[in-house]
Amino acid sequence: MLVAAYFLPLCSREAVAALTSPVYGLTDPDFVTVAVFYRQLFDLAPGGLARVASVLGGIKLVMAAGFLALIIDVVRGIVIGRKGDEATVNVALLIGALGLLVWSIPFYAAGDAAMMRLIATQALMISGAVIVVMVQRLAMPAEDLLEPVRFSLDPEQRPLPMRLDGVPVGRAA
């Protein structure tokens, strides 16, 4: 939750700046470093820099959306009194780690020490959250684990839909 609270404003601010700016966010020197690196890596024409900047802004927007989904899921779980969805945590941390990897490679290639320290700190935050989630799941008693979902094509064998308070909703006749 704290990792999401850190990355959500950071990623959303950078994504909005890149996607709404007339120069695609290329006023930020760090953003330019990443965009130029990937333009050169994929051997794009100089006009391809705008496309790369848009894609990088989109990656930041997807990261922000993943962390927003995590915050919403945790808050919803607290309000309802249920445990949050583990898949949301998994996907948010995976998107965050992959997005951070995309952003870290150019700074390591350029040898920018200040940005390498910042990226390493952010990578430690995400990897720490992954470790906490893994240890927490390993420490859970077996009866708290979810049973595998079994699907059936027979409408009579499908589970009843549930309301938010956990009460089953009857089948329509």
Walk me through the structure.
The model has no long low-confidence stretch (mean pLDDT 86). The termini are far apart. α1 (2-20) runs antiparallel to α3 (48-80), α2 packs across α3 and α3 packs antiparallel against α4. With 173 residues, the protein is mostly helical. The chain is built from five helices and no strands.
Q: What percent strand?
A: under 5%
The class by helix and strand makeup works out as mainly alpha
Q: Which regions are unreliable across 5 or more consecutive residues at pLDDT < 50?
A: none
**What is the N-to-C order of secondary-structure elements (H for helix, E for strand)?**
HHHHH
Multimeric status of the protein: single chain
Tally of alpha and pi helices: 5
Average pLDDT score: 86
Distance between the termini: 43 Å
Looking at the structure, what is the overall shape?
Answer: elongated
Number of strands: 0
Give the biggest beta sheet: none
The helical percent reads 55-70%
* CA radius of gyration: 21 Å
Topology:
Layout: H1 2-20, H2 29-41, H3 48-80, H4 86-110, H5 113-139
